Amino acid sequence: MFSATLFFSSCTSNTKKEQKKTKTETDIDSLLNINPNDVNLLAKRSNKSFAKFLKTANIEDLYKSKQDAAKAFRLDSNNYEARMAYAEALSRTPNLTSQELNNVYRHYNWLLSKKKTAKAYVGLASYYSFIQNPEKGIELTDKALRIDKKYRDAYIMKARLFLQLQKPDLAISSYETAVQQDNSFLAAYMKLGQLYTEQEKYPIALERFRNVTLLNSQLPEAWYGVAMSHQMMNENKQALDNYRQLMRVDPTFYLGYFNMGWVKQYRENQIDSALFFYSKSLDITPDFVKAHHNIGLCYEEKKDISRALVSYGKALKYNPNYELSKQRVKELKKHVYEK
């Protein structure tokens, strides 16, 4: 009875928080409709969109943030919050031009001249990350952490810089510290899952991908990570179950079908099922060379050499230099000639 009451209270509390958050966002939008040139409101809405972007890596939130911040900055370039919002959004924009990169450097130096903050130091560190000077970037993140040792984004930036230095263990340590500061930071869990996968630490990778699915059950890449972790640990049933969940979330994720075919072919020796799933992946991506090749291997298993050659031919149609298919064609034709 106590636990049920506690659960209900927690749900009620979370619902109230969500309602309050939604109302606040609506209030900002309403106020900006009345006064679209209110610099402080534009900066505030930019910060909200930016926070969403950092959580989910949704690029649309970044561009919303940048749009509001750029307008606020144009209206008042001496407004500290507006300039910070613009610098933050600009520094995370993909494919920066050289002029934009110079602007990142200029904005954060201006901000630091006004106030020494952890955020501004991390922002300036991002500039040194862009120009491939990770040592200088780490110096700046360390300055940020001396101001605030629990500043999540400093650990995220430090992890990025450690990866540039090809020190994945230190990067992992920084990402882990970041999620200790913010256990709802989806993007960091996702990166940890990828790094642990690269190190073949599949049980830990699985745990981190699971963290992501708990935070966002509609992110296909996370379900792919969960399923692949099970697959690499030879947990075939769990892998197939999670690939099916992946396909429910995103029916166009062709690698899910391909990997289901791979498990059926190599782990369970169910060739007809493998052919079915490989074909499903080709329904989505007809030029997927590996699927054509593996279909050829399946037909070889079934002693259907003519169909195998057709499948290898399709693989080579899309990639004439695909060595695995070239070798199989050569081998099969040699046997035919010998006969």
Please characterize this protein's 3D structure.
Helices cover 81% and strands 0% of the residues. It is mainly alpha-helical and 339 residues long. Among the domains are: 186-247, Alpha Horseshoe (Serine Threonine Protein Phosphatase 5, Tetratricopeptide repeat); 252-339, Alpha Horseshoe (Serine Threonine Protein Phosphatase 5, Tetratricopeptide repeat), CATH 1.25.40. Helix 4 (80-91) runs antiparallel to helix 5 (98-114). The longest helix has 33 residues, at 2-34.
Relevant terms:
Serine Threonine Protein Phosphatase 5, Tetratricopeptide repeat, 339 residues, elongated
Low-confidence runs of at least 5 consecutive residues: 1-19
Helical percentage: over 70%
CATH superfamily of the domain at 252-339: Tetratricopeptide repeat domain
CATH topology category name of the domain at 252-339: Serine Threonine Protein Phosphatase 5, Tetratricopeptide repeat
What is the general shape? elongated
Give a quick account of the main beta sheet: strands, pairing sense, barrel closure.
Answer: none
How many strand units?
A: 0
Average residue pLDDT: 91
Number of helices: 18
